[in-house]
Amino acid sequence: MSCDVRNDRLSRSLGFAAVLVVLSTGMVRTGMTQEGPPGITRPVVFPPFNPDGPDCSRPAGLRKSLTFAQDNGRKFMQGVARGLELAAKDRGLTYEIDQANNDPDLMTAQVRKFVSSSGGALVISPVDSQSISPVIKQAIWSGAYVGAVVPPPATSLLNAPQTNSLSKFNVRLAGTALFHFFCR
């Protein structure tokens, strides 16, 4: 066999392998496509809250529960967990805590469990914001409330002073948690 024939076969084999890689990559990406709307992707000014406006409707099928997906057991997170536990009790919600011990794969599994069990509210302190983002988005798309102790994705940020994102709701929630933590 001449070198030209061997090179031609090698080229075809490599080309075929390249096509398989491209196709398989496309199939993997197709399985990871977005399942919900992208959310707010640019700055938007909303009208002021109207207390006389129509009531919001609660998403159907969600449990009256609050789950704290906690990154680790450091003291600050213990304080957050205690405040959330007391706030859930005051509002008649079941309270669950899932501590990931700094393991991003464990946290991903815990948040998937929250979504599959139709959890109503999730507060998360992510181990790795990038890797957990797709699963957090699934929780948001399910209709659950999602709050993050660090930056997004989230329905609201509970402790992110670097973003200057305090709203009356966040201040009230933080105040309730601090009251329970320090005053009881």
Which keywords apply here?
alpha/beta, Rossmann fold, 5 helices, disordered C terminus
Cα shape: globular
- The portion of residues assigned to helices is 40-55%
At the third CATH level, what is the topology name of the domain at 65-183?
Rossmann fold
Sketch the topology as an H/E string, one letter per element.
HEHEHEHEEH
Q: Gyration radius, to the nearest Å?
A: 23 Å
Largest sheet: 5 strands, parallel
Please tell me about this protein's structure:
This protein is of the alpha/beta class and 184 residues long. The protein has a domain at 65-183: Response regulator (Rossmann fold, 3-Layer(aba) Sandwich). It is 47% helix and 12% strand. The chain has helices at residues 3-31, 75-90, 104-116, 129-141, 168-183, and strands at 65-70, 94-99, 121-124, 145-148, 156-157. It has a 5-stranded parallel sheet, with helices on both faces. α4 (129-141) links the parallel β3 (121-124) and β4. α2 packs across α5 (168-183) and α3 (104-116) runs parallel beside α4. Mean pLDDT is 74; it is low at 9-34, 160-171 and 177-184.
